[in-house]
Amino acid sequence: MSHAYENDAYENDAYDDDRSNELSEELGEELGDEPNDGQDYGESYGHDFGAGYGQGADGRGGPERTFAALPPAQGRGFASSWWGQAWLKALEDTALDGEQLKKGRRLAREGKVGAVSVRPGRITAVVQDRDATPYRSDVLLQQLSGDEWDRFLDMAVDRAGHIAALLDREMPPHLVEDAAAAGVDLLPGIGDLEPECGCEAWDHCPHSGALCYQVARLLDQDPFVLLLMRGRDERRLLDELQVRSAARAVRDARGEPPDTADRGGIGARRGVSAEEAYAAGGIVPPLPEPPPVPAEPGLPPSLDTETDPAPGLDPAALELLATDSAARAHRMLLDALAPGHEHQPLPVELTPDQDAVRLAAETAPESWIATRLATGSGRRRAELDAAVRAWRYGGSAALAVLEDEWDPDPESLARAQAQLAGAWEEGERPQLRAGRARWTVTGADVQLRYGRDGRWWPYRKDRGRWIPAGPADDDPAGALAASRADA
Q1: What is the per-residue pLDDT for 487?
Q2: Which residues have CB under 8 Å from 385's CB, separation 6+?
Q3: Which residues of 136-168 are buried (b: 16+ CB within 10 A; e: fewer)?
Q4: Strand order of the sheet with strand 134-140?
Q5: Residue 475: DSSP 8-state
Q6: Most buried residue, 93, 94, 95, 104, by most Cβ within 10 Å?
Q7: Residue 388, class by beta-carbon neighbours within 10 Å (0-12 exposed, 13-18 middle, 19+ buried)?
Q8: CA-to-CA distance for 122 and 141, rounded, in angstroms?
Q9: Where are the beta strands (DSSP E) in 129-181?
Q10: Cα separation of 114 and 432, whole Å?
Q11: What is the DSSP letter of 187?
Q12: 227/144 Cα distance (integer angstroms)
């Protein structure tokens, strides 16, 4: 038992961030350089935990999910779900020194656990000690064998409610009980959570304990995290369930007994022939109603990992693009479900320069990213700021009014002049100086611009530059009033 964690070290609130960052980079390189070819983590550190740890049943490295560091958990428990509490019970029953776990809880509550990597058979994070020393900590969990997965999948297909519960991010007790009856232990028990930590403690230390407490919070939100540790990611699991369900529907329709050779395990699965799938068309139940649209876009994956990015790849910029993509997908889904959507014209595809303005307008990026967008779109930073202002008032149409000068044809010019003549009472019209499709008020820093769509756009001069002053208006007098109000 390691007793290297003295109480006074845990009461010292002075942290050396520079030292922590340097060591985190070193640890990140170690994580990034580690081969993902199924080599056992314990084996690479001089320990042998058996082939089930850190590799798939076929001996290859499996999928990985990385979760951003969670905020401090002050004033709340680490697990509210019963399966999250079962995870913590396995930890607390396994650890030999409760004092080490107490210190681990304190580290977790203070937000000292970095991004958590979840892979088949293993969870990994860099945990910062209270003296600012970072340690890489791993916790290993035995994966299910191929036969165990077959039994679990057969059991889940037999009981449709189990699949529905997982899709709702729940793990009801009867699912775990039915799995146990089939000889499959989903939740860990005493001794199942094997620690490995850079502090070289041989039992659970504060770092591995803190990692487990944070993972309990992840399990609360998504039980598929546990199934990934057991060896199957969500997509693969659902695909195998779908194949088994279709095959079973065909067999049931023909009155055939279950065929063990058609089980959905990788290597044993033959799939469903086209003939069988067509024959099952009138048997397979209809698709369920689509789920409700989320109230807001989902969170993009965090790229804040210990692995250094590839040369030329900027994680912060990539996260911005992922966030923007999620917001656009959410907006497109809402538009697609709106009544009458099928009668709406297709949106005009933006040019790269227009999309740079849209991205800056809708995401409010950090200054250095905005500067890169300006440079990439051939604008100075002040020009991008004006373009963003225009976009927020009217999208691509407003941007065109800002950046494109045009000469109205005689018919458009006559229509514009007629609107100007009728916009004010006699004697109230301001003196305007015309220039192409722009009318500037004499002696004032306000301007009207006539768009190709026949609307009027207010502008005002700011530090020698004309900038948008409001949204478009069909009435030139209303647009001019907006430009004066903005000034």
Answers
A1: 62
A2: none
A3: bbbbbbbbbebebbbbbbbbbbeeeebbebbee
A4: 65-67, 116-119, 122-128, 134-140, 194-197
A5: S
A6: 104
A7: buried
A8: 6
A9: 134-140
A10: 62
A11: S
A12: 9
Residue 58 has pLDDT above 50, yes or no: no
> CA of 310: how far to CAs of 42, 63, 315, 348, in Å?
27, 19, 9, 34
Q: State the DSSP string of 361-395.
A: HHH---HHHHHHHHHHTT--HHHHHHHHHHHHHHH
Q: How far is CA 89 from the centre of its chain?
A: 30
Cα distances (angstroms) measured from residue 335 to each of 328, 331, 469? 10, 6, 28
Which residues on neighbouring strands pair with residue 280, listed in sequence order?
none
Rg over alpha carbons for the chain, rounded to the nearest Å, is: 31
**Average confidence (pLDDT) over 293-321:** 82
Q: How far apart are CA 20 and CA 129, in angstroms?
A: 9
Q: How far apart are CA 483 and CA 473, in angstroms?
A: 11
What pLDDT sits at residue 276? 61
Q: Residue 9 — pLDDT band, cuts 50, 70, 90?
A: very low
Tokens 């970095």: give the residue: 114
pTM for the whole structure: 0.45
Report d(CA 249, CA 255) in Å as an integer.
10
387 touches 357 (CB < 8 A): yes
Read off the DSSP letter of residue 343.
G
In angstroms, the CA 334 to CA 294 distance is 10
Listed residue (13, 221, 18, 235) closest to 116, CA to CA: 221
Going 362 to 367 to 373 to 379, the CA torsion angle's sign is positive
Give the tens place of pLDDT for each residue, 118-162. 999 999 999 999 888 999 999 999 999 999 999 998 888 887 677
Residue whose tokens read 């850190």: 54
**Beta-sheet strands, E only, within 174-329:** 194-197
Q: Decide: 163 and 156 in contact? Cβ < 8 Å.
A: yes
Q: How confident is the model at residue 481 (pLDDT cuts 50, 70, 90)?
A: confident
Helix (H, G, I), strand (E, B), or coil: what is residue 248? Answer: helix
The pLDDT, as a whole number, for residue 50 is: 31
* Angle (nearest 5°) at CA 162 between 161 and 166: 115
pLDDT at residue 179 greater than cutoff 60:
yes
33 has a pLDDT exceeding 80: no
pLDDT bin (cut points 50, 70, 90) of residue 57 is: very low
What is the 3-state secondary structure of 7-42? HHHHHCCCCCHHHHHHHHHHHHHHHHHCCCCCCCHH
- Report percent pLDDT > 90 for the chain: 32
